[in-house]
Design brief:
Layout: E1 2-8, H1 15-24, E2 31-42, E3 48-59
């Protein structure tokens, strides 16, 4: 079965770390595709910060 899992930056976690932790659980032949997107947002105070989203498409083998 093909499934997808999305990782999105929040104020308390980084999508990249979570995605890498998830990928470490998969065998290479399970990974179908990894897509990455990033935007820069401005806060009310004028500070800019980056938000990232990672989408992993993978094959399940009944373990996850």
């Amino acid at each position: 079965m093909i499934q997808v899992k999305e990782f999105v930056d929040t104020n308390s976690s980084l999508a990249v770390k979570q995605a890498n932790d998830f990928l470490a659980q998969l065998a290479e032949d399970q990974v179908v595709n990894v897509s990455y997107g990033s935007i820069t947002r401005s806060s009310a105070s004028g500070n800019e910060y980056q938000r990232s989203t990672i989408l992993i498409t993978y094959r399940t083998n009944g373990k996850l």
